[in-house]
Amino acid sequence: MTGRRLSTVAAAAGLSALLCAGAAAPAYAKSPSPTWESRALKLKDAHKKAQGEGVKVALIDSGVADHPALDGKVTTGPNLLQDGVHKGDAKFGVHGTAMASNILQAAPKAHILSIRVIDDDPSNDSDLRNATDNPMARAIQYAVDQDVDVISLSIGGDTMGDTFDEKDTAALAVASGANVPVVAASGNEADELNDTSYPAAYPSALAVAAFKKGGAHADFSNVHTYNAISAPGVGITSASNTGGWEKIQGTSPATALTSGVVACMLSAAPEHRLSPGQVRTILTRTAHHPPGGFNPVFGYGRIDAAAAVRAAAQPPREETKSRAHKGAAHLAKPDGIEPTQHPAWDVATLTVGLLASAAGGGMVAGAVLIARRARRTDGPATGASPGQPF
């Protein structure tokens, strides 16, 4: 994995340095209920129909620490890093514990399989960057072998030509072939370079953008045509690896919440065994659409969990028979693994700049031409998959 980076969190400030703007929010003992994100997703109505019963969600992240709210709901899978950090250590599961709680907020009766592939401490970057294997690909394969129903990836990296990985595509193909939806974070760099992020940019992944309270775009949430859907991602109530609760932000919690919604959809209609394509279709059809039905900011819109769960009971039929192509001839690469390209938004020198209005919460989008340059490797910069958590 040449040029790959597995950095996660600034050591001094922990998770909040990565997920939260400004000073870290203090941890607190009890999770408030209901949260704004649960209201925005309409989880109360969704839970009348399903709560993720019988569904196993693979959380491929930094591990999950012990927490009262997670007791009996998480199985600890393999640690694929071999970096000397183990469950119970202060640096274990900072990001992953938060993600587990976000999944369970949306699907309280689901079960989580935790697989550790990233480290919360960037001081381990040098060893991880030189890894010869691909922990994320191995984790996806392991998850499929364990018969999981959903895979949640709140991790990723930038693309300057070095983050597309054939092992990733092979692992994602295994998941797709096993009928397992893969949910991935869009990325947190809209207010910087707005880089393309893998695994979100792979066609088989369901890429999740983030919005803030009131429905406006979260300033950091990447703007790309691969975005499929958007979910709450600012001020999200999340479990701390120290046993308390804190507010975080990022496309990470948006992705975890979406994975929980998918778990509810699957448990609402277990007889149908929804495919990744059906999950995508239901989520995008039932979302609160932006003007025009789709845009690179929100994808097909903000998730409506209640509507998605209802629609899962009568899923759209998938057409499996091939149909003759009618139109001009088109030749593609025969290996089928060409990286996703989005000419209108992120090829060559085009980056989207987003300016949020502090007073009104509005947003102005402007296309800014910049010279593509080599990605920095210091600080909390996003590298490559598995990469830093969003």
Automatic annotation (TrEMBL):
SUPFAM superfamilies from the UniProt entry: Subtilisin-like
Originating organism: Streptomyces nanshensis
InterPro entries: Peptidase_S8/S53_dom, Peptidase_S8/S53_dom_sf, Peptidase_S8_Asp-AS, Peptidase_S8_subtilisin-like, Peptidase_S8_subtilisin-rel
GO MF entries: serine-type endopeptidase activity
Protein's recorded name: Serine protease
Alphabetical list of Gene3D superfamilies matching this protein: Peptidase S8/S53 domain
Family note: Belongs to the peptidase S8 family.
Region (Disordered): 313-341
Domain Peptidase S8/S53: 52-301
GO terms under biological process: proteolysis
Active-site residues from the entry: 61, 95, 252
Pfam hit, one: Peptidase_S8
Signal sequence, renumbered to the chain: 1-29
Keyword field: Hydrolase, Membrane, Protease, Serine protease, Signal, Transmembrane, Transmembrane helix
Residues annotated as transmembrane: 347-371
